[in-house]
Amino acid sequence: MTEPLNALDLSYEEWIDVSTRRWDLPRYRADQICQWIYQKKVFDVHEMTNLSKELRQKLLYDLLILPPVLVREETSRDGTKKFLWQLQDGERIETVLLSHGSHATACLSSQVGCPLSCSFCATGASGFVRNLSAGEIVGQLLAMERRMGANIENVVYMGMGEPFLNIDALFKSIFILNAPKMRNMGARHITVSTSGVVPGILALADLSIPVRLSVSLHAPNERLRTKLMPVNRQYSLSALMKALKTYQDKTGERITLEYIMIQKENDHPELAYELAALLSGLGVYVNLIPYNPVDGRYERSEPERVRAFADVLTRLGIENEIRREKGTDINAACGQLRLRTAERQAGTEPSGT
């Protein structure tokens, strides 16, 4: 007896193949099932009412539709929502829903934990467990949309994990989200955020779907970046800059750079001059982000230091924005809810959190 299929792991081409070869159905049946799952957010075969009762019974035994199960949800004063999900093997991941008034952005996780151990990040503190499948990545969005009762317009792969260290599942999930008969999300509404994994950036430059690129930079020189982000030992800042130049030459796309502002670590005005020199010749947009503190290891930059840093960049012709903080009151930085929930269950959570 063949194993049941995991529906959310199937690409559109695989849906067609399964429907016509495995189930001996006309290909339009694949479109109908995908419409139920991706557009109507129906995950129970019994509710797919335009399928015959006989077909629904057949699918019941041969098709698993397994979005993640909600463990915990928190809502910030600013409307940011954070979700802790449990996967089929019991592992837990986080997603964040950012509200921008007229639209929303879902921050999706690509791994359970993260192997990169950035010094300012809660996800790295919890260690790395495994990669997510394409279906587990896509399932986060579908589960949020079903819970919210509306489509979410934008997706950024900026949750737990480094997307380019799970590149096959990452790219497959992008194709699933973009497919017209599936989620039908426009390429311009999808962004991949990386800590600077050079081979992934170069692969994204050749991807047939022109999604956007965001890079977590956080420092303008090798020494400081290595201190904050150990990935810099493997993919140096100079190698990263070459990859970004290649990416931009191939795609013509502007690159977003994320720069977390950490008090007296990377917010000195002279570092803003270094950053401007580093970015000379690239078409970039720099987001200066208030740091969401994790375990007291660093402090958030004072507002006047952030403004001074931004003013230097502006004077030197680097387009930038001080991002309005979101979700601080619910610890919306990646990995904080998962880590805090685990501590609570183990009875080790610090008081006052």
Task: Describe, in short, the structure shown.
The chain is of the alpha/beta class. It contains 13 helices and 14 strands. The C terminus is likely disordered.
Name the average pLDDT. 91
Total strand segments: 14
Binned, the helix content reads: 25-40%
Strand order, largest beta sheet = 3-4-5-6-9-10-11-12-13-14
Could you name the CATH homologous superfamily of the largest domain? Aldolase class I
Spell the H/E element sequence. EHHHEEEEEEHEHEHEHEHHHEHEHEH
- Gross CATH architecture of the largest domain: Alpha-Beta Barrel
How many domain modules? 2
**Structural class based on helices, strands and sheet pairing:** alpha/beta
Strand content: 15-25%
Overall radius of gyration:
21 Å
Low-confidence stretches: 337-353
Walk me through what this model shows.
- The protein is of the alpha/beta class and 353 residues long.
- It has 2 domains: 5-64, DNA polymerase, domain 1 (Orthogonal Bundle); 69-346, Aldolase class I (TIM Barrel, Alpha-Beta Barrel).
- Helix content is 37%, strand content 19%.
- The chain is built from 13 helices and 14 strands.
- It has helices spanning 12-22, 28-39, 53-62, 122-125, 134-148, 167-178, 198-205, 222-228, 231-234, 237-251, 269-278, 303-315, 336-346; strands at 5-6, 63-64, 69-75, 81-86, 92-99, 104-107, 111-113, 128-131, 154-157, 190-194, 212-216, 255-261, 284-290, 320-322.
- The protein has a 10-stranded mixed beta sheet with strand order 3-4-5-6-9-10-11-12-13-14, with helices on one face. The protein has a two-stranded parallel ribbon with strand order 1-2. A two-stranded antiparallel ribbon has the order 7-8.
- Strand 13, helix 12 and strand 14 form a beta-alpha-beta unit.
- Helix 1 (12-22) crosses helix 2, helix 5 (134-148) packs across helix 6 and helix 7 runs parallel beside helix 10.
- The longest helix is centred in the middle third of the chain and has 15 residues, at 134-148.
- The chain is elongated, with a radius of gyration of 21 Å.
- The N and C termini lie far apart (50 Å).
- The relative contact order is 0.12.
